[in-house]
């Protein structure tokens, strides 16, 4: 990043890079603008929310699960800080909700959506993220109640009777145990 002396120049560079899809460079530029703006809580909150948007885009485009999770965590931290500076920043609430949903924290996502719905007029944004929460909940419920096949591996035990069990016999023996496993997942 080219050092800037004014937050507005760094912010503008961040906006330009974001529009070009250069999310890492945009995040750096917003970071520099954040460092330069100390007196205006509202401007700082806006810049943090913008950097969070970059982190979300970096996470969405990453093929590496760990890298994506780190980007979602950075987005959540930026949104948290943005909300400390301006507690009802709708963009920060929506972006944090999206990051929380992506990391599996559906309840926290719904709390953020409730705050947006309570204090802001852009209901379509809330409905879009809320629908994603519902889909995530449905998928999670389906996973919890799914009937998972038991895979039988060759026995390494020296006991020949156990080693000669057919996959069907082994599956029947494990059926009761698998039922307990599924029940634990539902809890």
Main traits of this protein?
globular, mainly alpha, about 0% strand, 9 helices, about 75% helix
Q: What does the model show?
A:
- The chain has 187 residues and is mainly α.
- The chain is 76% helix and 0% strand.
- The chain contains nine helices and no strands.
- The longest helix is centred in the last third of the chain and has 23 residues.
- The chain starts with 6 loop residues before the first helix and ends with a helix.
Break the fold down into its secondary structure elements and pairings.
Elements lengths: L6 H13 L3 H14 L4 H21 L3 H21 L4 H13 L3 H14 L3 H23 L14 H4 L3 H20 L1
Helix pairs in contact: 1-2, 2-3, 3-4, 3-5, 4-5, 5-6, 5-7, 6-7
Low-confidence stretches: 160-187
General form: globular
Give the overall pLDDT as a whole number.
77
Tally of contiguous helical segments: 9
Query: Which secondary-structure class do the elements indicate?
Result: mainly alpha
Q: Approximately how much beta-strand content do the residues carry?
A: under 5%
Number of strands: 0
The span between the termini is 49 Å
The biggest beta sheet reads: none
As a percent range, the share of helical residues equals over 70%
Integer-rounded radius of gyration: 24 Å
Q: Helix and strand succession?
A: HHHHHHHHH
Briefly say what this structure is.
The chain contains 9 helices and no strands. By secondary structure, it is mostly helical. The radius of gyration is 24 Å and the shape is globular.
